[in-house]
Amino acid sequence: MKRKGLLIILSSPSGAGKSTLARRLMAWDETLSFSVSATTRPPRPGETDGKDYSFKARPEFEAMVAAGEMLEHAEVFGQLYGSPRAAITQAMQEGRDTLFDIDWQGGQQIKQAMAGDVVSIFILPPSIAELERRLRSRGQDSDAVIAGRMAKSQAEISHWAEYDYVLVNRDLDEAEAELKTILRAERMRRDRQPGLTDFVRGLNREFDER
Amino acid sequence: MKRKGLLIILSSPSGAGKSTLARRLMAWDETLSFSVSATTRPPRPGETDGKDYSFKARPEFEAMVAAGEMLEHAEVFGQLYGSPRAAITQAMQEGRDTLFDIDWQGGQQIKQAMAGDVVSIFILPPSIAELERRLRSRGQDSDAVIAGRMAKSQAEISHWAEYDYVLVNRDLDEAEAELKTILRAERMRRDRQPGLTDFVRGLNREFDER
Description:
The structure is a homodimer. The first copy, chain A, is of the alpha/beta class.
């Protein structure tokens, strides 16, 4: 019997290293499925449709919501963001875990909808000075945009206590190792190993045939 | 703020490698405290009082139970076994995790009493043939004793589904690594990191002072 795939939610303020860590996890475990968020916001330079985001016109996005095709969605700064259900359902049925790089609003909705199948992880920055430094080092945003992100970061951090695991990203390699540890351990939980029932049945048969 | 120590329950049928794995965990993490079980059964050759077991006369054991000094206790094959409370409470207060090498009866009582502070792990043998081989290779027991242990093993295995984590000990090094992974991940759970509240308070102060 195949196990049902897990939904792994990574949330953090922008600049805490979440996207880099998500990429590293994807490279580490090729069975992982990445949930590409849909959004109505326009692509930024360097973003690829279908990889970074699935870019949608608002009517198309709203039609998907109406048809129940979004597992979660929310409006942020006037733009819609959501997680299309189809890829997630397919990965779960194939026994593959899905990684979500989403904010607390999306995380909360997925936890409500899929409770037992969700593992949620919040990534904190070591300090706010470091968070701002990382945001500025991208060098693509104005001071006003940075200020807006910092306000959003503070709001995001206020939700840290809703997550199963919390880690502080002081060092990327260390944080990566911690994420892998969490995934490995979660996969060892009894209720994530449906094959055990058959395995123990086999042990009992062996006892009885002695 | 110091975190409260965890109670880590290792259970398995005799011969599945539990005691070896417990010893390895103790060697790996010197902050771990091992809960030395008390028992009324006589010492076996090579067993040290206060290390393998705390050997007690029955009246003394029963007085401890009456005084509430056992966190759990049970009678097996006419002998009493129990976990003295004092060392466990002390370790928890010091923020050190305690390792229990106990059977399902003891595990069940500790889970009832200390719910949120318990992580329970069941270790399965790869096969019953291998379990019997390991039991016989100790070379100290008669066929009748082996038969009794095998019956007890089957009963013990029947409780595997009451544990948080289950692992199959096919290889000691691999099983040891899996146990360490579980411990590391459990310590990263939000509710096991009381220091996070202060840490996030510090981040908020940093936001507000910008």
